[in-house]
Amino acid sequence: MTDLQIKTVEMHTGGEPLRIITDGYPAIKGASILEKRRYVRDNLDHLRHLLMFEPRGHYDMYGALLVEPSHPEADLAVLFSHNEGYSTMCGHAVIALGRYAIDQGIIEAVEPITTVKIECPCGLVVADVDVKDGKSGAVSFRSVPAFAFLTGQSIDVPGYNTVTFDIGYGGAFYALVSAKQLGLDIHNSPTKDLVDAADAISSVLKSSIELTHPESDDLAFLYGTILTDGEDSYTTTPTANICVFADRQVDRSPTGSGVTARIAVQIAKKQIEIGQTRQFKSVTKSLFDATAEELISYGPYQAVHVRVKGKANYTGESTFTIEDDDVIGRGFLLK
Questions:
Q1: Backbone phi, then psi, for 99, in 5-degree steps?
Q2: Which end of the chain is less enclosed by CB atoms within 10 A, N or C?
Q3: 90 catalytic, yes or no?
Q4: What does pTM read for this prediction?
Q5: What is the DSSP string of 157-181?
Q6: Cα–Cα distance measured from residue 241 to residue 261, given in angstroms and rounded to the nearest whole number
Q7: In this structure, is residue 331 part of a structural domain?
Q8: pLDDT digit string (tens) for 2-28?
Q9: Alpha-carbon gap, residue 85 to 246, rounded angstroms
């Protein structure tokens, strides 16, 4: 047995797993959160394989690595990991980490709301945690500036003809596409068909569209495609979507950063108004509430702060090790 011993707390938000890595990683270098992200990517990626991949994880596992904050206001800082690499924002993880920070005593619980400031690669995200009788509950977070990058664009996608899409930023960039134009139904089509379509769209857009971000080139990449039910104008009934990100990974939750991006695009297209709250439903039928709080200027964009609310639950704790001769156990994926 090696000396390696990595400890985690296991949670899920709307069915989307989160493996919070609490102990066992080597020191992570970098003055800023983005430098830490680059350092982990370039020097410690074997540990992502160990924890996200089989036999300890699975194709759709998601991780949160706690690191020392570099932002002066942050209570904690986090790097996100998945089957392909390291994302810049993760709403379902922020919702879970809000509870975790209180339950672990990182932040003292204050009723009825305790605020937790979480440094993410995309910036500082402020979470408000419901607290009753000393226990943490539902969590909402206020997004970084979110904006529409492109709206009403069309592109040819092999197997799907011409596809109309928007691109929104909600801490990460997403293409937003109505599944109906692809001959698919968010509620009834097989998940594999939805994933195939979203992946085909992402592949074409990644090779065709150059993204830019006002603050850092590290944030300027297409994270995935969100297929929607096309119900983008304001209603009081939930609108459904499926987010396919990284390497064909499927989010079981409505996707916090994706919901943020959808709200930003809906505001830009005047489909909803500031102050309106919408519900978003995932493939597991879990729900997030999202509210467009205020318009702001952000670089060349009219942006919006979005508040997203959901609930996370604990599923256990783990201690992971590896034996010296266990080559397979260092991580693999079956596609």
A1: -65, -45
A2: C
A3: yes
A4: 0.97
A5: ETTTEEEEEEEEESSSEEEEEEGGG
A6: 12
A7: no
A8: 678 999 999 999 999 999 999 999 999
A9: 8
My answer on whether 228 and 297 are in the same domain is yes
Structural element, H or E, at residue 62: none
Same domain, 187 and 152: yes
Same domain, 165 and 249: yes
Between CA 9 and CA 21 the distance in angstroms is: 7
Q: Which residue has the tokens 């991949």?
A: 53
How far apart CA 248 and CA 225 sit, in angstroms, is 10
Cβ-count burial 73-90 (b if 16+ within 10 Å, e if not): ebbbbbbbbbbebbbbbb
> For residues 57 and 96, what is the distance between their CA atoms, to the nearest angstrom?
18
Which of 2-11, 30-39, 127-136 has the least mean pLDDT?
2-11
Which residue is catalytic, options 90, 120, 122, 243? 90
Statement to judge: residues 297 and 163 lie in one domain: yes
With tokens 């997030």, the residue in question is 288
CA angle 145, 149, 154 (to 5 degrees): 155
Cis previous bond, 112, omega within 30? yes
